[in-house]
Amino acid sequence: MKHMGSLGFTIIITTMQCTSAPFLSLSRTLTPAAPSTLHSHSHSSFSFPPSRKISCMDIAGVDSDGREFSSTDEMWNEHAGDPNKKSQWYRHGVTYWEGVDASVDGVLGGFANVNEPDITCSEAFLKVLLSERFEADNRQQQPLVALDCGSGIGRVTKNLLIRYFNEVDLLEPVSHFLEAARETLAPGYQINSDIHKAVNFYCVPLQDFTPETGRYDVIWVQWCIGHLTDDDFVSFFNRAKAGLKPGGFFVLKENAARSGFVLDNEDRSVTRSDSYFKALFSRCGLHLYKSKDQKGFPEGLFAVKMYALTTDVPKKVHRTRSKSKANKPRIIK
Length: 333
What we know:
methyltransferase; globular; about 325 residues; alpha/beta; 10 helices; about 30% helix; 8-stranded mixed sheet; N-terminal protein N-methyltransferase activity
């Protein structure tokens, strides 16, 4: 679901603020929390050498009641350590969002004012990625297809994806959100609906979904991956790789904790830190092509990061000095 923050209350945990986390096995959430230490810069490609992989096990965190966990293993064993606990984890998350209004304000947790800066920043990131990854001539000849994971009411598809892709499929486990998206994205409601259209509406949880092989140029995952356990996070991306066309990529846009993780006990989601995400990317065999920090959100919300992830190793750009500069005598001071 594309949600933002479940609630607007604030809990003080040592020096960290938090509220509900954002997502669901498919929710687009955002949520008040620790002030960000991240800056609004774009970062270039990065690959994870096997010998330097980061481990998630030693990452400590807290929950929304102030309880501390010494590791992710401790937290996940308690909340999803056996099939029954895991089933309850996912059922609780979906149940929470089933009680939320199918509106922009509802899916954004009462923060409808972040919709515009969210779309603006995402669009700037997407335009750069499309220009770098796909040649303009090919984009004109070959239809572009995207998958909107955690689509919610279709907010991101309507305001962004459908303007850049010829076909968009929506994936969302909460039925009344998906029905709202279907109505909003009906052919008669969209400009150029003959060449830019929403095609498939899948009411399936992210952890259970397997995409059609080779269908997508971009798989967009926003404010929903926090509802997945670490193992299901890895399993999802491993399955989803097969859904990408050659040269295709993932965009993951999520809340980022300042360090460790923050567990939201109300909607059953985990806000992970940048290092936690990168450890999971390594487990998935994904490469960080580019990243960017969200700008323009009100203070008091979690930082939000965008990651472009590829299955191929990013090409390194070798910068060399020109001969004129290389051979120029240096002045000794």
